[in-house]
Amino acid sequence: MNWNPSEHDYIIATGDAVACEFGDGIALLNLKSNIYYSLNGVGAFIWELIREPKSIADIRGAVLERYNVDAERCKADVDALLKGLAENGLARLHDEALV
Fold first, then answer.
1. Which of 22, 51, 74, 90 has the most neighbouring CB atoms within 10 Å?
2. pLDDT tens, position by position, for the chain (99 residues)?
3. pTM, entire model
């Protein structure tokens, strides 16, 4: 998968997963592959954000506002999580015009 979105691109969770609280984070079940994924507290926060279309810049900003993290580390970690979610069919880029 070619993953090279800009910070202005929007991303949304797909309807192919169900989530439930699990410890300090959440567990996700991909309904198409029947594979479980776990997200820590920050990942769970991001999952909640992308239940509706959000720009990547807005997601990064929300994480920076809520957590004490360096901006470069935030960018790298948020981008890696979003890429992983997209590669596993749990999120997709969303055309803002469709909102």
1. 90
2. 567 888 889 999 999 999 999 888 999 999 999 999 999 999 999 999 999 999 999 999 999 999 999 999 999 999 999 999 999 999 998 865 444
3. 0.89
Tokens standing for 55?
């720009």
What tokens were used for 28?
């996700």
Q: Cα–Cα distances in Å, from 26 out to 22, 29, 40, 92?
A: 5, 10, 7, 19
Kindly provide the residue ranges of all beta strands, DSSP E only, lying in the chain, ordered along the sequence.
10-13, 17-22, 25-30, 35-39, 54-55, 91-94
